[in-house]
């Protein structure tokens, strides 16, 4: 890349979207503020609208005494307090009961949050936070990587969507909530966390040095191959994202761009209102942007409106890039592009998150996060667990999935392992002729020696830490230079008329 043509990025001083770390689309479409309050043995739920909708509030009241088996809750509580052999507090029992009740619905996006978890999730960040920079979720009692944040240590270390995090610093994450896992994985800048990762049948250990994670939502540049094509990369959906995209497109237009690639790969989602405003850019007033469907309700249709969502329009030929890490709000955009805007999708099938969560404050130090609705594409398709398929399926090179070097493996003459094979594949990808057979023989040592020589490293023929870091860096450069998905998007745009 021309060093004078750097992607333009702007660091943003914003509050991290609520529940950004566990991939939630937080919204109550057309419902405004959602809350919960308690009174005696009754729980009263209300969705209170704002403005003219407030008179249409609904309320559902459930008397717990009328629920079969509810008396057992009180009985178990009293028996444990009176007879359990160890000391246990009343607060811990209540916390466990509440968590267990939410866990019973078996929904990875619903969760009871106590004061510590609420503080972690609601943390106000001026311009950044400290950690490894990865979106995670709890699924089937496992902690799964949804997407690493662009430019963060997790991405640099090679974490990929659908990687399973088995352990953090030797502590098993099995059965933990996403919030509990975040508490173990996050930490101060400069400290190291050791993660045990399962990718398919392979288990790897990777050391990641935590850093300050800037909240950047948009970057852009002109294509080096065609100066009339602008590339806009959108990393997440935060409060400034719509305005950032508008600025990016206007700047690129000023530089001569007449066509656009909108890159939503590895974008885990965020705020719903931003996705609606962004989707509105590509369609005419009255087009369907989204449908939502609450319990026992009919779909509620949200339509494009320049008056409501902004008048800015993108009318130039465009292509959208998606992959397995495109989730939630990114999938809302993909649905609009595919079904309403006639914008082709290039890449791989998206993550598949088609639900909406609301936040119910319980007390000053706890709250309930609950899945309250499905969201559907403009055509009424529910993509949950399925994702949105591209119009042009394009895989990245196989070596794009080799970006972890197992720090716990042995790399010496005679060693035989999948970790050695992984390193051999990396060396082959960056231009060193080598058979990737998993056997650390003299050919492997010689390839490493030559790599070290070419990169001004200590020439030992051994896979030390400095060599590992440089090899991963070179591999990432090779992936960037052979971005098959972006190349396909550029090819499509070149065939489209202005």
Describe this structure in words.
Residues 112-186 form the PDZ domain. One of its GO terms (molecular function) is serine-type peptidase activity. This is S41 family peptidase. With 498 residues, the chain is of the alpha+beta class. It folds into 4 domains: 8-17 and 216-354 and 374-396, 2-enoyl-CoA Hydratase, Chain A, domain 1; 22-121, no CATH class; 128-214, PDZ domain (Pdz3 Domain), CATH 2.30.42; 398-481, Orthogonal Bundle (Muramoyl-pentapeptide Carboxypeptidase, domain 1), CATH 1.10.101. It contains 13 helices and 23 strands. The strands form 5 sheets. Strands 1-14-15-16-19-20-23 form a 7-stranded mixed β-sheet, with helices on both faces. Strands 7, 8, 9, 10, 11 and 12 form a 6-stranded antiparallel β-sheet that branches. Strands 5, 17, 18, 21 and 22 form a 5-stranded antiparallel β-sheet that branches. Strand 11 and strand 12 form a beta hairpin. The longest helix is centred in the C-terminal third of the chain and has 17 residues, at 465-481. It is flat.
